[in-house]
Every structure is written in C-alpha cells, then in structure tokens.
Amino acid sequence: MLKKTVLKALNAQINAEFFSAYMYLGMSAWCEDRNLPGFAAWMRKQFEEEQKHALKIFDYVLEQNEAVSLPPIAQPPAVYKSLQEIWEETYAHEQHVTSLIHKVYALAMKEQDFATQGLMQWYVTEQVEEEQQASAILEQVKMVGTNSSAIFFLDRHVSKSRGE
Ligand code: FEO
Q: How many independent structural domains does the chain possess?
C-alpha cells in the first residue's frame, strides 16, 4: 500500500525511465547512421539499461498491490548537430534524472515511506555512476574534436569500455 502522492511520483518515474530508453535508442540510430558502431552499441546498451530502471519501479508498484499507469512516452529528439551535442545532451539528461530521483526520495522521506526510500536509494547510487560515465565520455569527445582518426579510435574504445 502506497500513499497516493508516492504512487503518482513512482508512476511518473516509470515514464521518465522509459523516455530515457527511447531517447538513447534515438541516439543509437543517429550514431549508427554516421558509421559510429561503437557509440551506437553504447547507446543501445543504455536503452536496455533504462528499460530495466523502468521495470524495477514497475515491479515494485505491483508488489505493493497498486496500479501501474502507462501514459504515452514523449517523442525524443532525432536530430543532433554533432557527436559532442549527443554527449552534452546525455550528461544534461542524466543530471535531470538525478534531480527527479531525488524528488521522489525526498517525498518518500516526507511521507515516512521507508520501503520506497529503500527502493530509491538504489537509484540515487545508480545516478552517480550514470552521471560519471556521461561526463567522462563527454570530456573524451571534446578532446578528440573533429579529428576523424581519433573519433574512429574513440568509437572502438567506447564500445569496449562498458564491458558488460
Ligand atoms: Fe535511469 Fe539513466 O537513468
């Protein structure tokens, strides 16, 4: 049993995680289209990760015998100016997701909902890694700039770096 406010916030977070998945899938297509298979693979893996994030909350809501709501997922951007813009967007997006997670956590604290706090703690920790990865790759992308042979090697390196 969940408080209505907490249920609403959790359902909104399910949608936000699915939007993230959709956004990374769009980025994967952009990278694939520009012959960047390593970046495309990274983004596709992230698409899968984000679906797991959504489903973890989805399962929790059902375990609490509450109703999951699945409103439409917003259309993500399909056009980017450059690889650097993709990574700037990724980093900014993960910072945004962190702020959403913190709001759900703060609400669970206010409502003295200890089980939801436990669930959200996993996301708080996960977001530290998500931001760190995005920021590190953004810095590498900035470093190589428009040097095509450096981009070629970075593309190969990025796909191996996940090691999953
Ligand atoms: Fe589910 Fe990338 O945060």
A: 1
Q: What is the pLDDT of residues 70-118, one digit of tens each?
A: 999 999 999 999 999 999 999 999 999 999 999 999 999 999 999 999 9
3-state class (DSSP) for residue 59: helix
* Structural domain range at position 29: 4-161
pLDDT digits (tens, 9 = 90+) for 115-157: 999 999 999 999 999 999 999 999 999 999 999 999 999 999 9
Q: How far apart are the first and last CA of the chain?
A: 36
How many whole angstroms separate alpha carbon 108 and alpha carbon 122?
A: 14
Is 130 near ligand 1, meaning CB less than 6 Å away? yes
* Ligand 1 atom with minimal separation from the 46 CA: 2
- Rounded CA-CA distance 17/2 in Å is 20
C-beta 50 within 6 A of ligand 1 = yes
The SS3 assignment for 66 reads coil
CA of 149 to the centre of ligand 1 (A): 31
Residues in the chain: 164
For residue 35, the CA-to-ligand 1 centroid distance in Å is 25
CATH number for 84? 1.20.1260.10
**43 half-sphere exposure, CB direction, 13 A CA radius:** 25
Q: Does ligand 1 have an atom closer than 6 angstroms to the CB of 101?
A: no
